[in-house]
Amino acid sequence: SKYKLREIRESPKNIPDDSTDNITIFTRILDRLLDGYDNRLRPGLGDAVTEVKTDIYVTSFGPVSDTDMEYTIDVFFRQTWHDERLKFDGPMKILPLNNLLASKIWTPDTFFHNGKKSVAHNMTTPNKLLRLVDNGTLLYTMRLTIHAECPMHLEDFPMDVHACPLKFGSCTYFLTFLLAWSSSKRN
Fold first, then answer.
1. Three-state SS letters, the chain
2. Alpha carbon distance 95, 174 (integer Å)
3. What topology does the record note for this protein and the membrane (predicted)?
4. Which domains are present in the chain?
5. Cβ distance 63 to 70 under 8 Å?
6. Residue 169: which of 18, 54, 17 has the closest Cα?
7. Number of Cβ within a 10 Å radius of residue 44
8. How far is 111 from 185, CA to CA, in rounded Å?
């Protein structure tokens, strides 16, 4: 395909036909996928377990407060799962979606058990990524800052060592129905 530079003042009617065709194709795909889709029901309900693979990319850690027994962590929290209802056939294998679509499909209800406060970043738009693969696999990533409790035993202060876990799970489903750590190694 050819790329053409256009001036900003050029009207949409001058966009090449192949670009307009792709927009039409993906609009139809999205309309068809969401027609009759019930986002209240998890994928595989009644048949199978919905395996949600998770991983975390830590962008910063700290500060750690020994007085409040908490820490702050900034992460990209990634979740991947398969939803048969969202399979599609189109000119692209991966469909990058607007994060607003996340409210129209089933997404895991993950929360942090030991979180005191979690903030989803929204500058300049929500820092979320949603991708749909043609086989129905979804990747949902969000940037979060989490303030979590870290129980500390200060008997040997200041020479003591602490482990500060980040515990998470599903709010409404048993852990055996949903979460699994991703086995892929990332740098």
1. CCCCCCCCCCCHHHCCHHHHHHHHHHHHHHHHHHCCCCCCCCCCCCCCCCCEEEEEEEEEEEEEECCCCEEEEEEEEEEEEECHHHCCCCCCCEEEECHHHHHCCCCCCEEECCEEEEEECCCCCCCEEEEEECCCEEEEEEEEEEEEECCCCCCCCCCCCCCCCCCEEECCCCHHHCEEECCCCCC
2. 30
3. Multi-pass membrane protein
4. 15-181 (2.70.170.10)
5. no
6. 54
7. 16
8. 23
Mean pLDDT by 10 residues, the chain (187 residues): 40 50 82 91 80 90 85 92 93 88 89 77 89 96 89 74 74 56 53
List the structure tokens of 74. Answer: 């900034």
Question: Is residue 94 within 8 Å of 132, Cβ to Cβ?
Answer: yes
